[in-house]
Amino acid sequence: MTAGARAAAVIDVGTGMVVRAAGEAGTDLPAAAASMADEARSATGSLGPGRGGGDLDEITVTTTARIHLTKVLEFRQGDALLLFVDFDRALTNQALAGLQVGELTPALLA
Amino acid sequence: MDLPRRGLPPTADAGPSGQDVTVALLGQALLSCAADRQSGALRVYGEPGGTVHVVDGGVAGIDTPGAPGPDVVLLRSGRVPEPGWQDTFTVAAADGRMGAELVRRGLIGSGQLEVVLRAALADSIFALMSGQVEECRMESVAVPSLLPLDPPADPAWLLAEGMRRLRVLASMPNPVRHDRDRVMRGHRAPPVGSALGGGQDGILALANGRRTARDMGFALGSGVYALTLEFARMREAGLLTVSSRRTVTRESPRDRAPAGEPAPVSDTPAPGAAGAGPAGQPAELPRRRKAAGGQSRRSQPGSGQPGSSSALLRLLRPGSVPGPEIPGPETGQK
Prior knowledge:
The complex is a heterodimer of chains A (110) and B (334). Chain A has 2 helices and 5 strands, in the order ββαβββα. Chain A has 110 residues and is an alpha+beta fold. Chain A has one domain (5-109): 2-Layer Sandwich (Beta-Lactamase), CATH 3.30.450. Chain A is globular. Chain B has one domain. Chain B has 10 helices and 6 strands; from the N terminus they run H-E-E-E-H-H-H-H-E-H-E-H-H-H-E-H.
């Protein structure tokens, strides 16, 4: 598995529901999922309706202990799916992790 | 005047409400099926009522007129084109291979199909839990379902997700009632043709004062709960007005579903028709058949705990050594 990955989840933005999850139990995924869904919605809103700068692709939140990487898996007509990954920052190369997650995302919905 | 608000948890010191009874009856029935690993059809009598397809104690599908099923979601959202659907239906519906055949033909990815099935289950359980359940009766005879989730979903997860949704709505100061509040364009709605994005254009196009979130869910192939939340956000932004009264407006071409999308007249589940009919009987946009007790037809198993898809590709591959799967989400807010 990707070094430092603690937990991962596919999140439905419209409902904030965790559709699938894997990793360490104890992570408060449902709460994190709901707030990531809100965050993705606000980020999309801030891009404006024209999307001159393109669509939302990824959100990274870094704290002193964690890296939360949220990747857009699918965005269609109001429905969006996110892949949320919780990394241990001390064990993670952020750039490499982003790359690896990006490479794997297409397989999640295939 | 306060109207009774079905779907919202009771106020603090009220006695057991209809909502409590509904949740208790449904929860008890589903958990009992799980404990005994039963298979069959759990008939849920009430409003909107429905049928829960139970396989080895798990929930494989739910048919209810309260929320669109996966067939409606797949077709009306455009995820699966109708010609492809009909061809697949003809060859695979009769023997229960619809999902596998859709994937085999490349009409949808297996992961994406699983997401749709799971989301439809969660939406249906929300519709049942926010309504009124009078009785649940288990029949051990399996009822055929068109798109079953395999392995089926854990009832505990499903009930927890339904409760989470009820709590989210209850926490809103002025929630939209998905089965009775109707929406119209608000004073800040942009002119027709403006691109709002995020699915809001589709909602505005159908906001004619006659449709509830449930109606629009069937018309757009979207989840009722997600639409309910979106209605609340759009009302906040002045894009929609919400009324519990049916507003009669002149139906303009704009009010009708956009070309290529379902006709508005079939917003609500129509009696009779489709889905898993006999082979060779192509489903023209499958609809539920309403049966006694407000139940309807349609169904299919989906998959179990929200953890499959190879444990999220073995927790994002490189090197592997997956962590344990996280049990179904128990709580959470939006």
